[in-house]
Design goal:
The protein has 79 residues and is mostly beta strands. 0% of the residues lie in helices and 71% in strands.
Length: 79
């Protein structure tokens, strides 16, 4: 079940929407990028919220985030 949704704009021009999900034993982020949706399970993080799977990582802290995909990282901000 979705808790909240946020829109992000990244330095490389990527625009994405993130919905944070919580299931019984799983917390995840559902990212929609370029019309495609991927669910990333939450991973351990010393600071902020980190979600990753299959070479894609979304790491948030406050209003900022870092998106890594295809080996490239870009900084993002909520709009």
């Amino acid at each position: 079940m979705a808790r909240r949704s946020f829109s992000y704009r990244c330095d490389d021009g990527t625009v994405l929407t993130v919905s944070y999900l919580r299931f019984i034993r799983l917390q995840a982020a559902r990212l929609t990028i370029d019309g495609k949706t991927i669910v990333l399970p939450q991973r351990r993080s010393a600071d902020g919220g980190r979600y990753a799977r299959g070479g894609i990582q979304f790491w948030i802290k406050g209003r900022s985030a870092m998106l890594t995909r295809q080996g490239k990282t870009t900084n993002c901000e909520t709009s």
